Amino acid sequence: WLVDDGKSALTIELAKPLSKNDRINLQILYETDPEGGGVNWLNENQTKTGSLFFYTDCQTHFCRSVAPLQDTPAVKSTFEASVTAERKYTVLVSGIKTGQVDMGDKIMHSFKQENPLASYLLAIVAGVLDAKRTGPR
User: Fold this and answer.
1) Prediction pTM value
2) In the 3-class helix/strand/coil scheme, how is the chain assigned residue by residue?
3) pLDDT tens digit string along 89-99?
């Protein structure tokens, strides 16, 4: 299937009907528009480190420019995500980090969110980051 007009619904017909507790795995490969409101960059001149900084901003309705999700708080989903970035970048996603794969000059970071989230809570950042302790925890 290919939906590229930005208006059509992706429809998938299953070979057989599903029962309530049946599970399927569905993988959707997609690309987003770099001009979409949910995908943002700070350039080298806008950061203290002089490095690019990538972040998503899915509030209030910009998640649709990041991922093929219903953009309403009523629809929640779990997810797994992999983000590949140059070694110098720290990558964070609104989920638990489950691993990373060394790919030479890049690292693929894997994350999983098992608690259903509304799409506006999906967050991804990648940049040269420092961590500071703010308390005993």
Assistant:
1) 0.77
2) CCCCCCCCCCCCCCCCCCCCCCCCCCCCCCCCCCCCCCEEEECHHHCCCCCCEEEECCCCCCHHHCCCCCCCCCCEEEEEEEEEEECCCEEEECCEEEEEEECCCEEEEEEEEEEEEEHHHCCEEEECCCCCCCCCC
3) 999 999 999 99
